[in-house]
Amino acid sequence: MRDRVVSLLSRILDRSRRPADAEVPDPASIHRVLIIKPCCFGDVMMATPALRALGLRFPEASIDVLTTSWCAEALRNNPRIHSVYRYPDAITVIGFLKLARNIRQGHYDLGVSLDRSPIVNSLLFMSGIPERAGIDSSGRGVGLTRRVTPRTGEHETDLYLRVAKSVGAGSDDAKPEYCAQSTARQAAGQFLEGLPRPIVVIHPGGAVNPGASFLSKRWPAEMFGELATELIQRHGASVVVVGAESDESATQGTVDFTDGTVLDLSSKLSIPELAAVCERAQLFVGNDSGMSHLASAVGTPTVTIFGPTDPDMYRPLGPNSEVCSSGFKTTSAGARDLRRPLPETDENADISMVSVSDVLRSCGRLLAISEPAGAS
User: Fold this and answer.
1) Residues 304-362: tens digit of each pLDDT
2) Which one of 3.10.310.30, 3.40.50.2000, 3.30.1330.10, 3.40.50.300 gives the CATH number of domain 2-19+26-165?
3) CATH class of this structure's domain 182-368
4) Alpha helices for the chain (secondary structure H)
5) Can you tell me the distance from the alpha carbon of 190 to that of 180, in angstroms, rounded to the nearest whole number?
6) Domain layout of the chain by residue ranges
7) Number of H helices, E strands in the chain
8) How far apart are CA 145 and CA 137, in angstroms?
9) Which of 31, 205, 248, 263, CA to CA, is 20 to 30 A from 14?
């Protein structure tokens, strides 16, 4: 029923769509831009190249972002952004109408939706923004004037960049962006003081968002512990375990299964401090979660472990980034809400199929680059 309603609304509003060969907006005519990307943290990090492209295309425009409170930290101190406003964790009809009214008062010239949700797309229409670009997934591009259709297996960053290109902000630079803070760097220096190199940050948790979790994206804690043990014994690594309160079972399990001393900073770091800790490390290892994208964005060599999600679509794109995958692949370009766990029949969705030896080999390759023989 929901899909029928969305399809009907899309057909009704289709008359607002620009022709494929329509001219892109003149930067001189764009003074205020609103970008909407509600969730999740990793997705917001994957959207930062598109934000950069839009900032370069419209250098005189004031660019605001609407996102959920737990994702706002991904954009802290981003020089492309004027203001970050809160998107509600759950939106009702009344809340939707109030939000549309508030956006209308912002008098935006360009709205960009980097989300597959028809609610987000229609919000731009209801807010009266004249130029509206976004993702048209399975007919969900409700009210958009410029629509970009996802391609099967396309990386999310590439999709977002194509949305930016539809309004003239073309770019091939897919490197994520995060602006570390000087105070956070000072705190990281104190946390890591005296640790010998190489420093390896392990984040065994993630895949939990407000109101939903996708724990099948987590590699087992005992395997993280075995990996940490091998890194200590073979590479002389100083292992630092990080995570939020929601990661406690994964972080404590990793510490318990490690044969050796680790620095447990779980539940002790803010997002800026975690970014700064990763920035000082020679390697980061984690699951398919926002923290892997954060580490990649600050330039840390990164090994990301994938199970029921497709690395072709969601892998970190920073420099020296490797993936260890169970082999799961997406077979459709349609929408998939990663905030909701979905039953998987594909045996390749089992993340425990990724072996410790495979992850250790990737770690060894990246440590050889970031910490060559003889370095100290």
Assistant:
1) 999 999 999 999 998 899 999 988 776 555 544 444 444 444 566 899 999 999 999 99
2) 3.40.50.2000
3) alpha beta
4) 2-13, 41-57, 93-104, 118-126, 156-165, 182-191, 221-235, 248-257, 271-280, 290-297, 311-314, 356-370
5) 16
6) 2-19+26-165, 182-368
7) 12, 14
8) 14
9) 31
